């Protein structure tokens, strides 16, 4: 596949420095590598459609593919169209979300499905601005759906892509903790002009970051752009920014919230407070976690003092 030039070597990266490499020198080998090495994932198959892409993008945020796959497949069997999900109570989405973590994503996906059914005749919109207007859909998800489902030209910046660009172009081991305007500018500079090629580039750079240009042990020897990589040319300097701290889970409110939700997911109906009190020893932390679930709309308290998932019987 021939990539289309997005810019020239005289264009500048964020901060005013020359890109140093003609983007075409990156496009062709990365896309060719992807052609031969892309994983066969269900949301990449034509039958997944735009709804399958959207579901996968919600699920894959901060969650590895191996955990997402079984939940995604069951979700799509149960709710193959947005209208199917919208017809169910939001609590069923939370229940089906299982242990993927960050369950507010389930509520947001249910809200997006309801909006698609109501505003767009049950079809995921093709227009980027209409995607952005859906509940729970932010800049990244709108760009990903427009690109992967509809072959449009958008900069798709997830953690993997940001890490690839940081190393290959800016010569740093890791990107900033949060996406910056400079990174968005760089992504636009690197984007091929032809929409289908740009969509392929987005998927290819994401896969490169997931499989080879990983955070802890990058497999540089197999990288298709090893010779062009600014970080490797600089001697692979160690990270100089703020310390990178892994997310803790054990003993946190997140863990307690997960335990409380597990009780509600496993029971067919509302549960008494006593059933929730048994899952965690610290009453103050338990109450705080339950209060957060109530505030987030993930749990409802009935007049008789029992608790249930939202909208469940």
Account of the protein in words:
- With 313 residues, this protein is mainly α.
- The protein folds into two domains: 23-234, Hypothetical protein, domain 2 (Endonuclease III, domain 1, Orthogonal Bundle), CATH 1.10.340.30; 253-308, Winged helix-like DNA-binding domain superfamily/Winged helix DNA-binding domain (Arc Repressor Mutant, subunit A, Orthogonal Bundle), CATH 1.10.10.
- The protein has helices at 23-37, 49-60, 65-78, 82-86, 90-97, 104-119, 128-132, 139-150, 159-170, 181-190, 195-211, 230-233, 253-266, 273-277, 283-295; strands spanning 300-301, 307-308.
- It has a two-stranded antiparallel sheet.
- β1 and β2 (307-308) form a beta hairpin.
- α9 (159-170) packs across α11 (195-211) and α13 (253-266) crosses α15.
- The radius of gyration is 22 Å and the shape is globular.
- The model is unreliable at 1-10 and 14-18 (pLDDT under 50).
Q: Beta-strand level of the residues, as a percent range?
A: under 5%
Structural class by SSE content: mainly alpha
Number of strands: 2
Number of domains: 2
Distance between the termini: 54 Å
The CATH homologous superfamily of the largest domain: Hypothetical protein, domain 2
What is the residue-averaged pLDDT? 92
Strand order of the largest sheet: 1-2
Top CATH class of the largest domain: Mainly Alpha
Q: Which fold name is given in CATH as the topology of the largest domain?
A: Endonuclease III, domain 1
Low-pLDDT ranges: 1-10, 14-18
CATH architecture of the largest domain: Orthogonal Bundle
SSE ordering: HHHHHHHHHHHHHHHEE
Number of helices, where a helix is a run of at least 4 consecutive DSSP H or I residues: 15
Largest sheet: 2 strands, antiparallel
Q: How large, in whole angstroms, is the Cα Rg?
A: 22 Å
Residues in helix, %: 40-55%
Shape summary: globular
